[in-house]
């Protein structure tokens, strides 16, 4: 690959609209991932709640363990 | 912790956060399915039970643990996965998930799975789960896989734990029957893995993984497949004599075992593995001379599924007809 000249560099300057588009897509993907993590945490909390409820029910004689 | 990746694309940070499907692929869903299936069989066959919701959470915890171990394996093996046709499309070598993200996902997943198992079942099951994750990720992946052709023999223990964990989840202890279920998968792993390695040996050689065909040659591998098959098949019939397996299991283990032995003998007599690896990266793609090895690999999955499905049918669906051997469990 040849060394870029000053003129070449100005030609290959990133297109601001493409950069903005890439940034938006990155943020969108990051938000999706954050929502998945949040959902995972809620699911984990729900599982712990369920386990606690069942253990309480069993320990208070509600059902045979 | 150091990573073995130096110049693989996986080394670079991902351009964008991965999609959920990439993380699912990181958990090796096909392996997870077999883990859940065998663990469920162990749970159902055990002489005890826990609340059905707790059992479902325990099985989920096991699936999560298996997936986390798979993620840790893919994180560590990113460099060799990138060199093998069969594995180069995995999310880490593809650059969809970074190595550090895969490690993070694996460690968090492993911790959560053990906590969930302890809370939903008991500490015995949780301890076994923690040990099996450690065994797979550290002993097998980081220790054995790149060092010895016996990697799959010793490492096979990691995949053999699920029915024992299922059993422990139901009873809080481990019995002889649980150990036999462990031994069946432990002895099944070498012929299963080496059958694949025979027709994918070029892949392993490219990645410098000393699988048996690469390190000791195809002929020795075919002989070892036969020897392990000869040990496996009687072991698989053993539950009939302890009372764990009934008539259905007896038919499955004797009939299925006979076919397994027949196929192992065919591999032994063949020239499988002599021609090098199949060009195609697909799991079942094979050269003409390697067909018997490919057939054994495919059948071995069905054979294991058959054994454990028979146990589930007998103990979960009431199809158990005792044959009068051993004590009923």
Can you describe this structure?
- The complex is a heterodimer of chains A (65) and B (329).
- With 65 residues, chain A is mainly α.
- Helices cover 77% and strands 0% of the residues of chain A.
- The N and C termini of chain B lie far apart (45 Å).
- Residues 1-14 of chain B have low confidence and may be disordered.
- At the A-B interface, α2 of A face α3 and α5 of B.
Give the key terms.
heterodimer, A: 65 residues, rod-shaped, B: 329 residues, Tetracycline Repressor, domain 2, 13 helices, disordered N terminus
How is the topology of this model organized?
The complex is a heterodimer of chains A (65) and B (329).
Chain A: H1 6-11, H2 16-59
Chain B: H1 20-26, H2 29-45, H3 52-76, H4 78-83, H5 99-120, H6 123-144, H7 151-171, H8 176-199, H9 201-206, H10 212-215, H11 218-242, H12 247-269, H13 291-316
Task: Report the CATH architecture of the largest domain in chain B.
Answer: Orthogonal Bundle
Strand content of chain A: under 5%
Overall average pLDDT of chain B: 88
Question: Which residue ranges of chain B are poorly predicted, with pLDDT under 50 across at least 5 consecutive positions?
Answer: 1-14
Largest interface: A-B, 16 and 15 residues
CATH level-four homologous superfamily name of the largest domain in chain B: UbiA prenyltransferase
Instruction: Let me know the average pLDDT of chain A.
Output: 78
Q: Quick one: how many beta strands of chain A?
A: 0
Strand content bin of chain B: under 5%
What's the CATH class label of the largest domain in chain B?
Mainly Alpha
Total count of helical runs of at least 4 residues of chain A: 2
Please give the radius of gyration of chain B in angstroms: 20 Å
Distance from N terminus to C terminus of chain B (CA atoms, Å) equals 45 Å
Radius of gyration of chain A: 27 Å
CATH domain fold name of the largest domain in chain B: Tetracycline Repressor, domain 2
Reading the helices and strands of chain B in chain order gives HHHHHHHHHHHHH
């Amino acid at each position: 690959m040849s060394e870029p000249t000053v003129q070449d560099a100005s030609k290959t300057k990133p297109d601001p609209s493409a950069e903005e588009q890439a940034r938006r897509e990155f943020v969108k993907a990051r938000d999706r991932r954050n929502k998945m993590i949040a959902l995972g945490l809620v699911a984990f909390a729900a599982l712990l709640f369920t386990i606690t409820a069942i253990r309480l029910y069993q320990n208070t004689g509600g059902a045979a363990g | 912790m150091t990573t073995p990746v130096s110049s693989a694309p996986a080394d670079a940070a991902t351009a964008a956060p991965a999609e959920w499907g990439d993380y699912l692929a990181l958990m090796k869903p096909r392996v997870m399915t077999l883990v859940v299936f065998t663990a469920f069989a162990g749970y159902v066959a055990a002489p005890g039970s826990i609340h059905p919701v707790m059992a479902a959470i325990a099985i989920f915890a096991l699936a999560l643990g298996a997936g986390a171990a798979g993620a840790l394996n893919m994180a560590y093996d990113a460099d060799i996965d990138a060199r093998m046709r069969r594995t180069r499309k995995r999310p880490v070598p593809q650059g969809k998930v970074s190595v550090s993200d895969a490690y993070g996902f694996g460690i968090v997943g492993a911790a959560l799975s053990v906590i969930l198992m302890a809370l939903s079942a008991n500490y015995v099951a949780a301890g076994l789960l923690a040990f099996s994750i450690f065994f797979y990720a550290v002993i097998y992946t980081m220790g054995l896989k790149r060092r010895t052709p016996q990697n799959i023999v010793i490492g096979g223990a990691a995949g053999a734990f699920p029915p024992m964990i299922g059993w422990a989840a139901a009873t809080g202890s481990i019995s002889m029957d649980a150990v036999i279920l462990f031994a069946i998968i432990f002895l099944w792993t070498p012929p299963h893995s080496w059958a694949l390695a025979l027709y994918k040996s070029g892949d392993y050689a490219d990645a410098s993984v000393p699988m048996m065909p690469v390190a000791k040659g195809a002929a020795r591998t075919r002989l070892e497949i036969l020897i392990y098959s000869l040990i496996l098949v009687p072991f698989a019939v053993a539950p009939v004599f302890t009372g764990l397996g009934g008539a259905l299991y007896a038919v499955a283990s004797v009939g299925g075992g006979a076919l397994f032995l027949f196929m192992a003998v065919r591999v032994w007599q063949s020239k499988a593995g002599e021609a090098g690896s199949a060009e195609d990266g697909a799991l079942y793609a094979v050269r003409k001379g390697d067909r018997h090895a490919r057939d054994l690999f495919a059948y071995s999955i069905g054979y294991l599924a058959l054994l454990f499905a028979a146990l589930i049918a007998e103990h979960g669906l009431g199809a158990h007809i005792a044959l009068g051997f051993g004590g009923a469990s």
